[in-house]
Amino acid sequence: MPHTVVALYRFTPLPDADRLVAPLQAFCDGLALTGTLLLAREGINGTVAGEAVAIDAFLAELRTGPLLGGRLDGLECKLSRADSPPFRRMKVKLKPEIVTFDAGATDPTGDVGAPVAPEDWNALLDRPGLVLVDTRNRFEVALGTFHGAEDPGLARFSDFRAYADALDPADEPDIALFCTGGIRCEKAGAYLKARGFRNVHLLRGGILKYLETVPEAESRWRGDCFVFDGRIALGHGLEERGDHPPEALR
């Protein structure tokens, strides 16, 4: 039976994150879900798989159920399918950040830049002088990226700070950022805005939402999109790609 996979995140204050770990773990176990959820005082991030009806119940609980009290109503989600179980077990973890960057010094709940809908992304890419930046790790970039994007050569996402620090906001560059699902872009965008960059754009929903939304014939994407589960990579329409060797993970 195919498995429904949901990649999700939301930056929102969760001062009680430590007290949410156990009840969320029990709730997910009760639905026979597998995957990983990360909780921090800044929000939630994760990828979870299970039967379609279980994923529906899980998302309903996060958005409007009593566990979170409606604090995740604007949850960013991407749904896809896996032909075999992409995870072995369910893990709910407490972390300092839901995406490791600078120990919480950057506030992603404020100004992160201007979100751009996937259907408007191609028009933005045609803007003269645009600096298009892939905020993902270099092994992810090697599997696929947007045509014309800069690869900062990041070994880890936190290295983006050094890349950004070498740019001069006085030059007023027009910068567009993208990542897998949108979460890293929001952190990177918040960092750039805090340093005084005015023209920052983010691909809303990330590469996954673009591949889901934009027809392949109109796409500026080249290659496949790395995902952090047993499927390794997805293509247009979020179709599973099983033709990448294990070395692609290194």
TrEMBL record:
Residues 126-219 form the Rhodanese domain. Pfam families: Rhodanese, UPF0176_N. Its EC number is 1.14.-.-. GO terms for biological process: tRNA modification. It comes from the Bacteria. Keywords: Oxidoreductase, tRNA processing. InterPro entries: Rhodanese-like_dom, Rhodanese-like_dom_sf, TrhO, TRHO_N. It catalyses: uridine(34) in tRNA + AH2 + O2 = 5-hydroxyuridine(34) in tRNA + A + H2O. The keyword Cell wall biogenesis/degradation does not apply. PROSITE patterns: RHODANESE_3 (PS50206). It is an enzyme of class 1 (oxidoreductase). The keyword Oxidoreductase applies. One of its GO terms (molecular function) is oxidoreductase activity, acting on paired donors, with incorporation or reduction of molecular oxygen. Catalyzes oxygen-dependent 5-hydroxyuridine (ho5U) modification at position 34 in tRNAs. Belongs to the TrhO family. This is tRNA uridine(34) hydroxylase. It comes from Methylobacterium durans.
